[in-house]
Each structure stands twice: as structure tokens, then as C-alpha cells.
Specification:
Bound molecules: ligand KE4
Radius of gyration: 21 Å
Helix content: 25-40%
Number of strands: 14
Structural class: alpha/beta
CATH class of the largest domain: Alpha Beta
CATH superfamily of the largest domain: Type I PLP-dependent aspartate aminotransferase-like (Major domain)
């Protein structure tokens, strides 16, 4: 068992000054037990904790590190930008460059506004959709997570379900009234909700590929069905691509799956690891955003020059090197096939959902196509599996209800180490 003494003492001290000892709940290992690992540095496919233990990375900062950690391209761009100052609170050339690049990479985005997180992006997108349509309500899907904005913390996924309280205290009745819930992959239910709230649904927002209840793919025709409903009813279709944007393809899930939303929210990869979010969409909708239009949204550090430099280095690389996605597809296929082989060897019939460089191993024999089916997973066995993997130097998301994210830094040797650890961890975790 590795020495974790520094992480343990840091966590004890952290809990005196930070709620739960962490700055984001899912990092606290509450769902898997044990002491969270405090990271000292990261490089490529590895992170290193404060006690010097090395781990192969399958979280990649919850998505942003698609090229692996501490990539020289990003590091050098940040260092160079720092020489000119850290923040101006005034427009800069880099913001124009990244906005133009995003509209080229994601053609459904004709105009885009930079913010500082995915939460800000989704909160703003809903406000704009309401302002543009003059309607109040919006539909989200059970198990989808769109950040911690009040209106979204209803049957949310990610940390909200990991902590076991999808409906958070502090969210008012008023907020609940305007948030309508549908089961993912259930078009009939969406149609019924739209009928029951005729002419009062401003938007439908979803993760086009869900990652926050674990990786759950859209059923064939589901996204196309939502597109049709939104066209018929004058509803703004918002793809929350904070996770999938620039990950599944240079144009995100909408390019990969061929369905065009009216608005898109972005985060994670867009900042190359710096705090960046963005929302954008059709010009006629985005022109409602202040100061062009009446819908107010602002941010002191929005478009921050250092963050823009990191984001530009990342997005230019992804836009100019399409082979990144071929490599990720290959790595994903090799890992998933290896897990399937181990499940067969061990006589286990667990479910794997996988697309490109995102996957989840669900500890259930059920098909996982929505929140209810995801919740049939055995989180106790998952917790044991997680700990066995950690002991063998593999750093997975500390929750069954999170997708894993692969990077181009994963080489065959890392994949082999992962697959060897995986078979041992599965065997031990499932011993009666
Ligand atoms: P942030 O506010 O955390 O930057 O983004 C919120 C968000 C919005 N939309 C989607 C689809 C997301 O996945 C997220 C954030 N994802 C989680 C991981 N499941 C962030 C990890 C965390 O909360 O610490």
C-alpha cells in the first residue's frame, strides 16, 4: 500500500478551512471512501501525489487534459502570455481570435461569449433563451448535470447524485416551478411535457452525450427527435457540450452525431486547463446578449488573456491536427476491448458505454440508457474496484456516475498497465 501520509494530513488540515476539505465535492472521495489524493504535479499520462506516488490518469481534470498534462504547447503559451500581464478588463485581440476560431470549429455557433466556467455558460444560455423567446420554462433531463446554477440542481447528475442529494437545499420552489424534468432518451415524455406547457417552454437543454451519470449515449433518433420538436414548437435547443465539445471531434458531439443545436455551451477543453467557459449560437439569438441586446450577462475575468492564450494553443492544435481524434478513437477501442475481455475471463456481465475517448464501466448487467438504469449499478462494488485500481497506480473518477476521459498521452505501455490492474481489481472487487 503506497504511503499516503502527506495527503492524509493535508486533508485533515483542509477540512478546517474548506467545506469538506475540497473546492469541488466530487474530489472528496465520499462515494468511494478513503482519503483523497492531493496532487503535487502532473505530466503527460501521469499525475503525482504529495507522497511521490504516480498514477495513470483517466480523469484528466474531468476532461480538459485531452493532450495529457502539462503539454509544452499550453505551458509555453501561458508563460509567454504572462510576460504581458495577467488581466486587463478590456477587449483584447486574443478574444477576437478565439471567438472566430470557435465559430469555424463549431459552425452552429455564429456568435460566442466567453465566461469563466461551464456553470456560467449554461446559466447564461438559459437566460438568453428565455429572453429571446419570452417564455419561462425549460426542460432538462434526469441525471444530466449543467453546473451548479439553481435552476439545474433538480435531479442533477455528477457530484449532485454522487453526494446522494440531486435536489439541493437552497433551491427555491420558484426555481423548481420553471425547471421541467424528462427521462433521457424518452421522446414521448418530452412531447407530453411540451404539450402540457404549450407555448411556455423556452429551451430544451441536454448533454448530447451524457457524461454526468456515467457515459450514456443518445438513443438512435433521439437528438433528431428533439431537433424536430424544437423546430415545430419554437423552442431553443441547447447542447451542453462542456464535456463533449472539442473532445468527440473538433466540432464536438454535434459534428460527431450530425445534429445542429440553436445554442451550445462549452468549457473544460476550451481553456486548456485554465478557467474558461463559453456559450454561443445563432446570431439572431446571441444578439439578445448585452450590450448588443437586453439580456444582461457579465464577468470581470471573462476572456482573461492568460486563459485565452491557453485556450487558443489548445484549440488551434485540435483544429490543425485531426489525427488527435483518430488516436483517441484507437486508444478508446483498445481499452474498452481489453475491459470486455477481462469481464469475459471473469464471467462478469457488466455494462460498458463508450464513445470516442469517453467511457464508463457500470457495475450492473442492465443496459444503461438513462438515470434510472444508471442507478442500478452497484456502487459498493464500484468503490472496491476504484480503491484496487488506485492501489495499482490508476486514477479513475471517484464515482460510478462520472464518465472517464482519455488523452493522447496514453501509450501502449500505459494501456497494458491499466488492463492488468483492471483485471486484478475486478477479480478482487467482485469476490463474494
Ligand atoms: P463547471 O462549472 O464545473 O466548469 O462546468 C459545469 C458543467 C456543465 N456542463 C457539463 C456537461 C459538465 O460536465 C459540467 C461539469 N462537469 C463536472 C464533472 N462531471 C465537473 C467536475 C466537478 O464538479 O468537480
Amino acid at each position: 500500500m503506497s504511503d499516503l501520509s502527506t495527503s492524509i494530513s493535508l486533508f485533515t488540515k483542509a477540512k478546517r478551512f474548506i467545506p469538506g476539505g475540497v473546492n469541488s465535492p466530487v474530489r472528496a472521495f465520499k462515494a468511494v471512501g478513503g482519503n483523497p489524493i492531493f496532487i503535487k504535479r502532473a505530466e503527460g499520462a501521469h499525475i503525482f501525489d504529495e507522497d511521490g506516488n504516480a498514477y495513470i490518469e483517466f480523469i484528466n481534470s474531468w476532461g480538459p487534459m485531452i493532450l495529457g498534462h502539462n503539454h509544452p504547447l499550453i505551458r509555453e503559451a501561458v508563460i509567454k502570455a504572462m510576460e504581458s500581464g495577467t488581466s486587463f478588463g478590456a477587449p483584447t485581440a486574443r478574444e477576437v481570435e478565439i471567438a472566430e476560431l470557435i465559430t469555424q470549429m463549431v459552425p452552429s455557433i455564429e456568435k460566442v461569449r466567453m465566461v469563466n466556467s461551464g456553470t456560467e455558460a449554461t446559466m447564461s444560455a438559459i437566460r438568453v433563451a428565455r429572453g429571446y423567446t419570452g417564455k419561462q420554462k425549460f426542460i432538462k433531463f434526469e441525471g444530466h448535470y449543467h453546473g451548479h446554477g439553481d435552476a439545474f440542481l433538480i435531479a442533477a447528475g455528477s457530484g449532485a447524485i454522487t453526494m446522494g442529494h440531486p435536489d439541493s437545499p437552497g433551491v427555491t420552489e420558484g426555481t423548481v416551478r420553471d425547471t421541467l424534468l424528462a427521462p433521457y432518451n424518452n421522446l414521448d415524455k418530452v412531447r407530453a411535457i411540451v404539450e402540457a406547457n404549450k407555448d411556455d417552454v423556452a429551451a430544451i437543454i441536454l448533454e448530447p452525450v451524457a457524461g454526468n451519470m456515467g457515459c450514456v449515449l443518445p438513443a438512435p433518433g433521439f437528438l433528431e427527435g428533439l431537433r424536430e420538436i424544437c423546430d415545430q414548437e419554437g423552442i431553443v435547443l441547447i447542447f451542453d457540450e462542456v464535456m463533449t465539445g472539442f473532445r468527440l471531434s473538433p466540432g464536438g458531439a454535434q459534428q460527431y452525431l450530425g445534429v445542429k443545436p440553436d445554442m451550445t455551451t462549452l468549457g473544460k477543453i476550451i481553456g486548456g486547463g485554465m478557467p474558461v467557459g463559453a456559450y454561443g449560437g445563432r446570431k439572431e439569438i446571441m444578439d439578445y446578449v448585452s450590450p448588443e441586446g437586453p439580456v444582461y450577462q457579465a464577468g470581470t475575468l471573462s476572456g482573461n488573456p492568460i486563459a485565452m492564450a491557453a485556450g487558443l494553443a489548445m484549440l488551434h492544435h485540435l483544429n490543425d491536427n485531426g489525427d488527435v481524434y483518430t488516436v483517441l478513437e484507437k486508444t478508446g477501442n483498445k481499452i474498452v476491448q481489453g475491459i470486455k475481455d477481462s469481464l469475459n475471463t471473469l464471467g462478469l456481465s457488466y455494462t460498458i458505454n463508450h464513445i470516442g475517448s469517453m467511457y464508463s464501466l457500470f457495475f450492473t448487467a442492465e443496459k444503461v440508457y438513462d438515470f434510472e438504469s444508471a442507478k442500478t449499478a452497484d456502487t459498493v462494488i464500484f468503490g472496491r474496484y476504484f480503491q484496487e485500481m488506485l492501489k495499482r497506480g490508476v486514477y479513475l473518477a471517484p464515482s460510478q456516475f462520472e464518465s472517464l476521459f482519455l488523452s493522447t498521452a496514453l501509450e501502449d505501455a500505459h494501456i497494458d498497465q491499466f488492463l492488468t490492474a483492471n483485471e486484478h481489481a475486478l477479480r478482487i472487487a467482485t469476490e463474494k
